[in-house]
Amino acid sequence: MSLETQLNTDLKTAMKAHDKLSLNVIRMMKAALTNEKVKQGHDLTPDEELTIVSRELKQRKESMEEFAKGNRDDLVEGVKAEIAIVEKYAPKQMSEDDVAKIVADSIAKVSASGMGDFGKVMGVVMPQVKGKADGAVVNKTVKAQLSK
Fold first, then answer.
1. Global pTM value
2. Full domain range(s) for residue 17
3. So what's the pLDDT on residue 29?
4. Which of 46, 47, 49 is nearest to 29 (CA)?
5. Which molecular function terms from Gene Ontology are attached (predicted)?
6. 80 and 100 both lie in a single domain
7. CB-neighbour burial class of residue 23 (10 A; exposed 0-12, middle 13-18, buried 19+)
8. Measured between alpha carbons, how far is 148 from 42 in angstroms, rounded to an integer?
9. Spatial CA neighbour of 53 closest among 117, 135, 114, 131
10. 3-state SS track over 123-139
11. Tens digit of each residue's pLDDT, the chain (148 residues)
12. CB < 8 Å & 24+ apart, contacts of 6-15
């Protein structure tokens, strides 16, 4: 089932349940998908859909951090609820141990010896973890392993 089909099904369910928060989040996700579809000029591939879900999730996490910095706990709670809804459409996230293993394998693969090889390692790691791991976690893990 495509993401768009899943969103349409969930949209109907949210409407019937009068769940305004889910309804708003699903509508935003559908709008993001539609905008990207128009921009690309073709139906989206599962990878492109995954990229959009990841972008939506990242935006909400960044908003939550900013609200927390501004001591806006009322807004933080709302964004947390939105994140929970968006996460239903994202693939299961990898653990930090799994990311560390992939990074270690990639460092060995490209024979990286220091921080100068950061770009090479990231270039090999990111396609393997796309959508399954947070870029900040990958970045931190690569830096930690290269600085050893």
1. 0.73
2. 3-87
3. 94
4. 49
5. carbon-nitrogen ligase activity, with glutamine as amido-N-donor
6. no
7. middle
8. 45
9. 131
10. HHHHHHHCCCCCHHHHH
11. 688 899 999 999 999 999 999 999 999 999 999 999 999 999 888 888 888 888 898 899 999 999 999 999 889 999 999 999 999 988 788 888 888 888 888 888 888 777 888 888 888 888 888 878 878 888 888 888 888 7
12. 6/89, 7/33, 7/89
Task: Specify whether 83 is located in the same domain as 17.
Answer: yes
Half-sphere exposure of 101 (CA within 13 A, CB side): 5
The confidence score (pLDDT) of residue 1 equals 65
- The pLDDT score that the predictor gives to residue 98 is 87
Are 26 and 7 within 8 A, CB to CB? Answer: yes
Same domain, 11 and 81: yes
CATH number, domain containing residue 19: 1.10.1510.10
Residue 115 backbone class (left: φ over 0; alpha: ψ -120 to 50; beta: rest) = alpha
Inter-residue contact 125 to 103 (CB < 8 Å)? yes
Q: Please identify, among 42, 58, 87, the residue that sits at the C-terminal boundary of a domain.
A: 87
Q: Are 54 and 136 spatial neighbours (Cβ–Cβ below 8 Å)? A: no
> Do both 80 and 108 map to the same domain?
no
